[in-house]
Amino acid sequence: MAEHIIELVDVSKSFDDTLVIDHMSFYVNKGEFITFLGPSGCGKTTTLRMIAGFDLPTSGKILLGGKDISMLPPNKRPVNTVFQRYALFPHLNVFENIAFGLRCKKVINTYENDRGERYTKKEKLSKKEIAEKVKKALALVDLEGFEKRSISTLSGGQQQRVAIARAIVNEPEILLLDEPLGALDLKMRKEMQLELKEMHKRLGITFIYVTHDQEEALTMSDTIVVMADGVVQQIGTPKDVYNEPANTFVADFIGESNIFNGTSAGDRKVRFCGKIFDCVDDFERNEPVDVVVRPEDIRMCAPEIGMLRGKVLSVVFKGIHYEITAQVGRYELIIQSTESRDVGDEIGMNIFPDAIHLMKKKYTKNVYDGVITKRNTVEFADGEFECDVTQLYPGSHIDEEDYLVTAEGERLDLTGVAVTVEVGFDDIAISDEEGAGGAMGHIISIIYKGDHYRIIVRTEENEEDFVFATADLWNENDYVSVIIPKDKIKLTLKHAEDRK
Amino acid sequence: MIKKCLKSFYIGLVLILLYAPILLLAVYSFNEVNTIGTWGSFSLVHYQKLFGDPVILEMIGNTVVLAIVAATLSTLLGTAGAIGIYYSRKTVKTLLGGASQIPVVNAEIVTALALAIAFVTVGLDKSYFTLVVGHMVICTPFVYLSVVPKLKQMDGSLYEAALDLGASPSKALFKVVLPQLIPGIISGFMLAVTLSLDDYIVTSYCKPSGFNTISTYVYNATLKGNAHTAETLSSFWALTTIIFVLIVAVVLVMNLTKKPDGRKRNET
């Protein structure tokens, strides 16, 4: 087993009252190239900054080689960072920038005095040593002879290289890279990706890389940590993460994918798109699952012999392949193929068992803690909804003074009664109109599932989520009202003693 | 064509209104006679008087030394304050940032009176010390104002980068953060010097008796209106002219040296 160089133990971090990292635990093996991947705001940069020491965890521990470094200031940690915008010192030239870390460093040298006794001295590096190290570092990033250049005369790519040289010249145990290629153009970025990978091999130190670019992560990493919402979604090799995503978020975020709602038909069979397919994952019979099929894994064939039969809706030329959208019943499938088809063509499609990946459903229903109000409505998820309170007591009705009268004729005031609220995925609608529904929130996720979108709306105050299916396409970050019909809100009493 | 003429006429008019009084003074500083309006003949007699009078020379010396002492201390205080406030938490930042600007917007006479009363209350006699403190009160906010924009322009991760490379917080401050602020610190210092040089109100409230700067001296001289002061007053025409020429020279030099720098920035 490889040595864990960095280990996060139950680390949380909040800024003011916002929880950015939510009880995160994982480890980094010594010498590996690990990438934190996720959309902006997922907590990846904060995690990196906690490892570097710029931010301190609110709770939990960060271990470096088994030692707790959670509270150690950044200048005492054997890690170096390549910053997003390089953060080169503009008043120093290239040589001085790279030498900065070396000049701060003190090394322990051993000497022998006249009587043959050995003693140690903490000393700064000599001028000659510094010059040599800087020269070596510059050679490593292919910038020989740039010592005297001023930072402002360098191109973006060259500044990037100086930033890397400035970090690795200190021979850190871990190199942290915070989206270092974000500011470069595509071609330069691809070159630097390979160069960084090469550098990692040559130096043999641990690289921790942060990016929101999934392709970059797949190209460079030994291990990918997919993050969203301050929570680790999946940790694995690029192959694992691509071929066997842990949930719909990972499947949607990494690469192109067709995601469907399916049902396990037992015995390594799954039903989706109205057909039963053989697959390699085993789930309990009738268990609802999410099905992922990568577009390049759908093979087109003659209409008569395919497992699925459909009609071509659109064809887009993408350079290396064509992206074909096909309609199968009410489902849409995306296919990537080197062969083209014409719009309107009938095609057959085959999906082989190892191309089908099943995932346990993360969301199966919306459940909230609610409280009944004076007006016999229910408050939950930062909102107030009309509901039918008589469902709490079978056979009851509401009298003219808004009291609930049970079947036995008892009059009850339900104000303040705690209930569990359940809402189905198909029973929620949203609207642009403010106040149209019982609660307001931002759309935080949209995933296309072949014939509908699965949308998650999150309220602002308590960050409660509404998960639902809709045929309409919305935009992420839209601020919307959540509408739930009165009869679709299912209430159950929370405590038996409330039944008095 | 007419539009063009009007344009240059307008600019000319503004410039004349701005500079005619000073130029008039400059011309008369070379006049042999003491009264404005009658031209005797060209002479350097006022300049002779100016550099021959030990009282005037001492007063000029007082003014310059005071300006440099007050400006240096204000620069130290203002820069430290700007850095401190910039890196504070948000509430502290807005509170202190706002408070530091009160002397800027406050009427100077109010500041001066308040200072005088404060000195009396704590039992401090008016001395050179109180004078320097008074000047620092006026100058420091301006230093703060000229340093803060540089802090805002600076890439926030520079300080972190320095820490990351093993520098202690103080080393990161002096080796990385301060060098980015130098243009702001210099202009803050210059501003403080000019503010202190021509300050009258705070000076007159805080200075020990018998101590004079140019402004208090000139003010008192014009106030009394006796024959002797009329005599000395004319030597101030010479002084004003020298100061004006000096300032024009400084501004020219600063603009000329700045230019190549600005061009370089455009190229990259």
Give the structure's gist in a few sentences.
The complex is a heterodimer of chains A (500) and B (268). Chain A is an alpha+beta fold and 500 residues long.
Q: CATH topology of the largest domain in chain B, what is it called?
A: MetI-like fold
Which segments of chain B are poorly predicted (pLDDT under 50) over 5 or more consecutive residues? 261-268
Largest sheet of chain B: none
Overall shape of chain B: globular
* Cα-to-Cα separation, first versus last residue of chain A: 59 Å
Model regions low in confidence, pLDDT < 50 over at least 5 residues of chain A: none
Distance between the termini of chain B: 39 Å
Report the C-alpha radius of gyration of chain A, rounded: 29 Å
Q: Supply the helix-strand structural class of chain A.
A: alpha+beta
